[in-house]
Design goal:
The chain is α+β, with helices and mostly antiparallel strands. Helices cover about 25% and strands about 25% of the residues. The strands form six sheets. Strands 10-7-3-4-5-14-13 form a seven-stranded mixed beta sheet. A five-stranded mixed beta sheet has the order 6-12-11-8-9. β4 and β5 form a beta hairpin. α1 runs antiparallel to α2. The protein starts with 8 loop residues before the first helix and ends with a strand. The C terminus is likely disordered.
Length: about 350
């Protein structure tokens, strides 16, 4: 029932689209159902007054009616779908507050970064410097720009009173633009099954007046802690039916690190991986840039491999500044600084240090 009585303009337009589409299809469905019942009654075996024409095969007028009516409705549905698909594109910024009010000049959308966790929701307000868990708030009649991603598996961000559902996927950012027009508390949840705690993956979306929203932000800053990378790594661990949490401060690069799957600084960011690929990549041609460090020189069945060189197509020749690692602590793989098209290394298997033996 919320879908048919929403409180946001985008959801209201989607509601109207559902009603118009259903009405157009009923123009065919209702007559077909009525005529089916009528024909079954009129031409029943006990009705001796019905015309019996076993040789009847064709009627041009009937064929015109049968094919033209559905064709007209299909054309109408296609036109409506084409227009609404572009007007209601979730990536497209909204152009009005409702059917009678355009967005005033100079109004800046409220940006909200959404992260689907197992099994809870994290909302980051980068312009306000705060974050919440399982509670989302926005001022009434203010455009909202959602940036949506996930920490592990795919979910779906859905507030029926606000707009349609949008998928949240790890390593990818989806977007949604919407506006809430009526104050109130609304239901939000994941509309895509994501495991054991899925049924409890719900949150409250609060539509507030401007003054009430400012008070809400002040309360978040007053009773919240800080959300740094190490705090997020603890938060993202799977848990069910988490209570509402507030964070008075957020690391400025946290959402970007979540999106690129490198909140843990020991992991390479997805954006850096793509940059390496764009510059030629490692691939098969870079197999010789990977070295294996085992506990000894003989048994390496369970040894780890580490990237020891990065190929850059711009470098005309290989050059190695030092045989010793530039960085890294004892017991960790070496980190080399070099410019090379290809550099090979050898290791005795007992030390993290590697020695360059040839280069081209």
């Amino acid at each position: 029932m919320v879908v048919l009585n929403p409180s946001g303009d985008v959801a209201a337009q989607q509601r109207d689209l559902l009603i118009v589409s259903t009405a157009l299809m009923l123009l065919i469905i209702v007559p077909v159902i009525v005529l089916t019942l009528l024909f079954a009654w009129r031409y029943r075996s006990s009705n001796k007054d019905a015309v019996y024409a076993p040789e009847w095969a064709h009627s041009t007028g009937l064929e015109v009616v049968i094919w033209s009516a559905p064709l007209v409705i299909i054309i109408a549905l296609g036109a409506i779908t084409w227009v609404s698909t572009h007007l209601l594109d979730p990536y497209r910024p909204i152009e009005r507050l409702d059917a009678s009010r355009p967005i005033p000049e100079g109004v800046k959308p409220l940006t909200v970064q959404v992260v689907a966790l197992d099994w809870k929701w994290l909302f980051v307000y980068p312009d306000l410097g705060v974050a919440t868990v399982n509670e989302l708030a926005a001022p009434v009649d203010t455009p909202i720009a959602f940036k949506i991603t996930a920490s592990s598996v795919m979910n779906s961000f859905y507030v029926p009173a606000l707009a349609g559902q949008i998928y949240a996927m790890p390593g990818m950012e989806t977007k949604l633009h919407a506006v809430i027009n009526k104050p109130g508390d609304y239901e939000g949840f994941s509309a895509n099954y994501s495991g054991q705690g899925f049924s409890g993956m719900r949150f409250k979306f609060r539509g507030l007046g401007r003054e009430d929203f400012d008070k809400w932000v002040a309360s978040v800053k007053a009773d919240g802690g800080g959300l740094e990378r190490q705090d997020y790594l603890a938060l993202e661990r799977p848990s069910e039916r988490e209570p509402v949490r507030h964070y008075a401060s957020v690391a400025s690069d946290l959402y970007d690190a979540i999106l690129n799957r490198c909140v843990d600084r020991s992991k390479m960011c997805q954006s850096d991986m793509m940059r390496i690929d764009a510059q030629g990549g490692l691939g098969v041609a870079g197999v010789e840039n990977v070295i294996t460090l085992g506990k000894d020189g003989r048994d390496r069945a369970f040894a780890k491999s580490y990237v020891a060189a990065v190929c850059t197509p711009e470098a005309p020749r290989a050059s190695v500044a030092s045989e010793a690692p530039v960085g890294g602590r004892s017991g960790e793989p070496p980190i080399f600084e070099m410019k090379a098209t290809r550099t090979s290394f050898v290791s005795d298997g007992r030390s993290p240090a590697a020695r360059a033996v040839s280069s081209e």
